[in-house]
């Protein structure tokens, strides 16, 4: 079964709907974005999120001390690196805390897929651009990968079944489950239904 990550949750109702749908992961964005949450907001949201759903902290070139503090406080259970973080950053992060790391790659060419394949991160995530853009990359490029990956960028209920048929490890969605900039329960339900019913 393809796993589901619902990203960019910001409100208590988003968490309530996620708890009902029980995705495999939810994402809190700590990077500069209209979806950014403060540490305090994320801590409050984590408290009401089902205990068995890991919260993924999404960062762009964030100082490691800050990322590690959020892990130690129990606010996040996984780290997603969405900037220009390199192997040295991942090594240093692992010395600080022991949680699964997802490294995001912006995919424009077969070379980007090759680079992603070499990452030492626990998981790689293939995306269109800087993150949360609502745009898809050319998914046919992913066929060259010989490791599991999160498929992200421009997913929505209308293309969820096609995405699931590529058999990624997980699908990651944000813009495509929003209406007027906030999460939309109906779209969240429909997205999860279409992913789960593909099998
Ligand atoms: O979501 C954001 O605003 C964001 C900002 C900066 C870095 C990463 C960000 N999101 C990361 C995600 O994991 C998104 O779910 C992923 O990029 C897909 O986004 P979308 O195309 O909107 O579904």
Automatic annotation (TrEMBL):
It catalyses: N-(5-phospho-beta-D-ribosyl)anthranilate = 1-(2-carboxyphenylamino)-1-deoxy-D-ribulose 5-phosphate. Coiled coil: none annotated. Keywords: Amino-acid biosynthesis, Aromatic amino acid biosynthesis, Isomerase, Tryptophan biosynthesis. It comes from the Bacteria. It is an enzyme of class 5 (isomerase). Pathway: Amino-acid biosynthesis; L-tryptophan biosynthesis; L-tryptophan from chorismate: step 3/5. The keyword Isomerase applies. GO terms for biological process: L-tryptophan biosynthetic process. Residues 5-192 form the N-(5'phosphoribosyl) anthranilate isomerase (PRAI) domain. The keyword Isomerase applies. Its EC number is 5.3.1.24. GO terms for molecular function: phosphoribosylanthranilate isomerase activity. InterPro entries: Aldolase_TIM, PRAI_dom, RibuloseP-bd_barrel, TrpF_fam. Belongs to the TrpF family. This is N-(5'-phosphoribosyl)anthranilate isomerase. It comes from Megasphaera stantonii. The lineage of its organism: Bacteria, Bacillati, Bacillota, Negativicutes, Veillonellales. The gene is trpF.
């Amino acid at each position: 079964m393809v796993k589901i990550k619902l990203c960019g949750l910001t409100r208590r109702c988003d968490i309530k709907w996620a708890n009902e749908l029980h995705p495999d992961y939810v994402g809190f964005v700590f990077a500069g974005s209209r979806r950014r949450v403060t540490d305090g907001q994320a801590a409050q949201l984590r408290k009401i999120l089902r205990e068995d759903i890991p919260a993924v902290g999404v960062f762009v070139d964030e100082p490691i001390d800050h990322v590690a503090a959020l892990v130690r406080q129990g606010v996040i259970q996984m780290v997603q690196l969405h900037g220009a973080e390199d192997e040295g950053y991942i090594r240093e992060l692992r010395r600080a805390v022991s949680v699964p790391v997802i490294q995001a790659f912006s995919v424009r060419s077969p070379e980007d897929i090759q680079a992603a394949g070499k990452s030492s991160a626990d998981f790689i995530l293939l995306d269109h651009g800087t993150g949360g853009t609502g745009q898809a990359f050319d998914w046919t490029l992913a066929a060259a990968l010989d490791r599991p990956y999160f498929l992200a960028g421009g997913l929505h209920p209308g293309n969820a079944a096609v995405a699931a048929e590529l058999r990624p490890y997980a699908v990651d969605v944000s813009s495509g489950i929003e209406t007027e900039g906030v999460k939309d329960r109906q779209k969240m339900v429909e997205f999860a239904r279409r992913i789960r019913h593909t099998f």
